[in-house]
FMN-binding protein MioC (Xenorhabdus innexi), 146 residues
Amino acid sequence: MSTITLISGSTMGSAEYVAEHMAEILDNLGFSTEILHGPSLDDLPLNGLWLVVTSTHGAGDLPENLQPLADEIAQQKPDLNLVTFGAVGIGSSEYDTFCGAIRSLEQLLEDHQAKRIGDRLEIDILQHEIPEDPAEKWVKEWAKLL
Ligand SMILES: Cc1cc2nc3c(=O)[nH]c(=O)nc-3n(C[C@H](O)[C@H](O)[C@H](O)COP(=O)(O)O)c2cc1C
């Protein structure tokens, strides 16, 4: 089966834990996975299946470890036509910019012709004390689309 590259953006680790949990589930389903925390564009397969998991910080901003990737994409304008991706955000609905990071990153990927598979998951930490729980449910459904 295909290799799935999990890309995480995180400040305090929540999104990383969620990415690791989803990778474990995908491994158990027979996929091979690699997890990259805050990768640069050079680290990523440009004909691959990505699962992007990011929290939101500042006022709707990407975490510091993922902003450089977004900057590289915006500057280098790679053709991501052969990339398909899933999108998972973690945020808090107390902010007007709830899950702003995954929304803007998804837009950036689509602007460069990447295609999203499945619906975006937005995990609200005010509703889910354990963000891995909704992530687990979502990724099992997402895997069926692959
Ligand atoms: C300073 C600060 C700013 C934040 N800004 C936002 C925001 O704009 N939108 C949002 O949905 N969540 C926001 N959050 C909530 C975080 O996304 C949430 O706590 C998340 O679980 C952090 O995950 P991480 O440890 O992977 O970075 C903010 C949190 C902090 C501490």
